[in-house]
Structures are given as structure tokens and as C-alpha cells.
Amino acid sequence: MDPEITVGELASDLAPAVARLCAAALDLPEDAAEAGIIVAALWPRAAADRPVVALGAYRAGELVGALLGSMSAADPRLGHVDLVAVAPEHRRRGAGRALLTEAERRLADRGAAEVLLAGNPPYYAWPGIDVRYTPAVCAASALGYRQDRTAWNMTADLSYDGSPALRSTEAAEARLAGQGVTVRRAEPADVPALAAFARSTFGGAWDAELTESVGRPEAGCHLAERGGAVLGFAAYGSSRPSWFGPMGTAPAAEGSGIGGVLLRRCLRDQRAAGLTSAQIGWVGPVPFYSGSAGARIERVFFLYRKSLEN
Ligand SMILES: CC(C)(COP(=O)(O)OP(=O)(O)OC[C@H]1O[C@@H](n2cnc3c(N)ncnc32)[C@H](O)[C@@H]1OP(=O)(O)O)[C@@H](O)C(=O)NCCC(=O)NCCS
Q1: 120 with 175, same domain?
Q2: Atom 48 in ligand 1: residue holding the nearest Cα
Q3: By the number of CB atoms within 10 A of the CB, which of 30, 72, 107, 286 ranks highest?
Q4: Any ligand 1 atom below 6 A from CB of 264
């Protein structure tokens, strides 16, 4: 390792500098474009909710790399690396290795027995390492991480009026109205009912993603209800404006068209905000998204883990 490289904790007033570094270091344009938002979600915003490790790598006093990590809310034995980036002109000098080694130490101090290079919902920018970040894939295996899962996103094309992702929801909504189902934009007052619905129907805690989606300018959420009872919801933008999810429809309402309507309402909002495509993150039901929005599998991620024991 280059002896001039040192690693230390990042002070929170460095968030803009870290965002600039990530904009230059994230080689995929769609990630570089959202670097500032990603850093804000994974660091100051996430830190209000969960323990966060924020590290900088310095060379001759210059910030050349950054790492953001966190402890899992679901499992106190798991630590996560949420982002690691080294400026292109400072790579292959050991900054990445030094950042990951220090992160492992700090996560272990907080109780982690294993570290995952994988998204830690509700604040995550990627499910794992995009396979096109080849240096990161090489670094992960060089540093003792084992790939244990694969995840993928689907891309919905919002670039032209006739896209299947932008198909009208009017007829389907009229049909649903005939069955007493109302579809509308969610308001902050809906969050407790939506979170309770998500918990009781799917067993997942989506409270934070719902809170972060409802009523924030780059995000949104739509819901379906009958007689005041939630039947489904779809949200977007909780960590990244271009990302869609989570969504869920009550099993009893499956097949009624509610899911497709909720999905396309969100995609319509994202297009109105100026996006030409949306990422349906960490997918699940490929045929549903393909059928309802013409979405295609595009981004693929490797998820890694490393035991810190022995
Ligand atoms: C991944 C990344 C952080 C690595 O940073 P780095 O400072 O260059 O990493 P290091 O110099 O510590 O490399 C550690 C080891 O990883 C492996 N490695 C790193 N880059 C590699 C490459 N391009 N090809 C092959 N192996 C590589 C090597 O084994 C290396 O050890 P060595 O140089 O002694 O052979 C950097 O490439 C980066 O910022 N990439 C873009 C952002 C990114 O992909 N982040 C992950 C997604 S969040």
C-alpha cells in the first residue's frame, strides 16, 4: 500500500466533497448523475435511523476515496458496505483495501460478525456490486469476499409517449372504481396505515421507505383502497429519484389490475419529473413488470459476504 494513504472518519460537513468524489469515481453515468443524492441518503439521512460508518481515504491531505457503511437494522450481526469509491487517478494504490479493512474493523466493533457488500434497505443505492464495476468485483474477491447471491433491476423506458411503461391507467381505474376501489396519491397521513398494511401482508418493515417516499419532492407513492382498507401501494424515489419500489398488492386483490395501475402511476410521475427511464430495483416478479410496463432486465448485481470471525 502507498504509505502516504491514510484513512479516517469523515466529518459530516464533508458530504459535498464526498458527493463530488463519487460523481467522478462512479464509472456508470446513471450512478454518477445521482451521486449527491446517493451520498445524502446513505449518510446523513441514514445516520438518523441506524449506525453508519463514514470513512475517507486521504493522500497528501487530499480526499481520494470514501466508504459509507452501516449496521443492519434486521440482524445486529450483519454490517454492510453501502458505497466505496476511489478517484480514478488514485486507484491501485491500496486506498480501496485500506477503506474496506478499516470499515470491517469498525463494523466488528459495533457487533458485526459478517460484512455484506449488499444493499441495506431502506437506505441503499444498489442491491450489490453492479457487474460492470469490474474493478470492484476484482477487489471484492481479492479482499476475501465471497459472492453468494445475484440480484437484478429492470429498466422501464420513459423516453417516448407510446412506451408500455406509460400506458394509460384510465380504463383500468374506471373498472376498479366499479368494484369500489379508489386509487390515489398517498399523503403523509396515510403512512401509518400503509406501513401497517406492508407489515401485516408481507411481514416486511417498509416504514422508512414509505416515509421517505410520501411527500418528498423527488419521490412519491400511490395507493389503492376499498372502504378505507388499503389494498396495495407503490412507491418510488425513497433513496434515488430514478428508482421505483417498493410495491405490494394484497393477495386477495391480485389479478385485479391494481398493481399495474399503481406501478404506471409512479412511472408517470417519474417521467413528469424529467426522467427518461426508471429502475425497478431489486426485482422480484419479472413477468409482472415485463407485462405491466414492458420493463426489461438490465442491471445485474453480485452480492458478497465475508465472515469476520476466526
Ligand atoms: C473498487 C475501487 C473502490 C477499488 O479501489 P482501489 O483503491 O483501486 O483498490 P486497491 O488499490 O486497494 O485494490 C485492492 C485489490 O483489489 C484488486 N483490484 C482493484 N482494482 C482492480 C482492477 N482494476 N483489476 C484487477 N484487480 C483489481 C487487486 O487485487 C487489488 O490489490 P493489488 O493492487 O495489490 O493487486 C475502485 O476501483 C472504484 O472506486 N471503482 C468505482 C466505484 C465502484 O465500483 N464502487 C463499488 C460499487 S459501490
Answers
A1: no
A2: 83
A3: 107
A4: no
116 CB within 6 A, ligand 1: no
Mean of pLDDT values over 100-119: 98
Angle at Cα 50 formed by Cα 124 and Cα 231, nearest 5°? 60
Identify whether 149 is part of a domain.
Answer: no
What DSSP line would sit under 218-264, residue for residue? T-EEEEEEETTEEEEEEEE-SS-TTEEEEEEE-GGGTTSSHHHHHHH
| DSSP reduced 3-state for 127 | coil
pLDDT at 114 over 80: yes
Q: Cα of 35 to ligand 1 centre, how many Å?
A: 19
Could you tell me if the CB of 100 is within 6 A of ligand 1?
no
Give 84 Cα–ligand 1 centroid separation in angstroms.
Answer: 10
pLDDT value of position 216: 87
Q: Whose CA is nearest to atom 19 of ligand 1?
A: 139
131 and 164 together in one domain: no
- pTM (predicted TM-score): 0.93
Same domain? For 82 and 42 the reply is yes
Q: Are 269 and 232 within one domain?
A: yes
Does 52 map to a domain? yes
pLDDT in the model for residue 228 = 92
Structural domain includes residue 150: no
Residue 306, in any domain of the structure: no
On whether both 119 and 188 belong to a single domain, the answer is no
CATH number at residue 273: 3.40.630.30
Report percent pLDDT > 90 for the chain: 90
Could you write out the DSSP letters of every residue in 63-96?
A: EEEEEEEEE-SS-TTEEEEEEEEE-GGGTTSSHH
